[in-house]
Description:
By secondary structure, the protein is an alpha+beta fold.
Amino acid sequence: MDKDTIIRKYLGKKYGYHASSACFLFVQDIFWQERGIKIKHDYLEMLRLFIPIADQGKPEPWDVVCFAKGGLVTDHVGVYLGDNEFIHGGHLDQKEVMVHRVNLDPYRSILQGYLRYDPTKDEVKGKTEEMIP
């Protein structure tokens, strides 16, 4: 992934009518458009397709960044770009795509961790790959 291309393509785009769902819609869209990975609009589906990263200090581009401002429940997600930056849609009453740093507040203080896509858990992707000669 070319970070600058992704930023130019998505920065400032509007996602959703409510900031609470805009972040997930953005992650869903960027994974589909850029990687061909379909995630249903369901956080549990994301948890099924993604695995927690054991070494939280070593995120990689395309890891999903998870935040919880009110406790243990994830209430915001974005896509890690590298160099402590992540891109996300709608947070704190904003409805457009933004780029922020995970190592600076307010995000540092509410960071839960990272999830990484696991193609072995994706039945649809697996079937698609099996059909390719």
